[in-house]
Design goal:
The protein is built from no helices and 13 strands. The N terminus is likely disordered. Strand 12 and strand 13 form a beta hairpin. The protein is an all-beta fold and about 150 residues long. It starts with a strand and ends in a 29-residue tail after the last strand.
Length: about 150
């Protein structure tokens, strides 16, 4: 789940990371989504995801090449649960400009369990997403990869 432009210096724009369930299984030195500062990364949309169990952070950015920039990241309607950095994005050596953090929660997503990532009926991730143009049931999209 890394956008990693390690050896590149170009511009990377308009990445949509929507409706995923990303489980780190408690790996200590890991991140859910990494946006690397190598070149210019712009207009990232991270919405309706469940990101849990990453030791370092749910979302991470770091400077790979001097002079790189990360601009305009919208992080909305996600469930960040049991991640490092108090479930907050971690910006190391490069801080993105124009970051939107809206309606993210830090609740246990309440999966069925045993490798089944469907949500239980009382999950706070049900109908807690935002409409990104994908089909959904209920009053709003669910967070994660599958509708309840």
């Amino acid at each position: 789940n890394d956008f990693d432009s390690w050896n590149n210096t170009g511009t990377y724009s308009y990445w949509n990371i929507w409706n995923n369930t990303i489980d780190g299984n408690g790996v200590s030195d890991s991140d859910g989504i990494t946006v690397s500062g190598a070149g210019n990364a712009t207009n990232f949309s991270i919405k309706n995801n469940i990101i849990k169990g990453f030791g370092r952070s749910p979302i991470f950015s770091w400077l790979v090449q001097p002079g790189s920039k990360i601009d305009t990241i919208s992080i909305e309607n996600n469930d960040f649960y049991n991640n490092g950095n108090n479930n907050a994005p971690l910006w190391r050596d490069i801080t993105p400009t124009h970051v939107t953090l809206v309606k993210n929660i830090t609740s246990n997503p309440q999966f069925v369990g045993g490798g089944d990532y469907h949500l239980l009926s009382y999950s706070l991730a049900i109908d807690a997403g935002t409409d990104v143009g994908l089909p959904y049931k209920g009053s709003a999209p669910d967070m994660g990869y599958v509708e309840y």
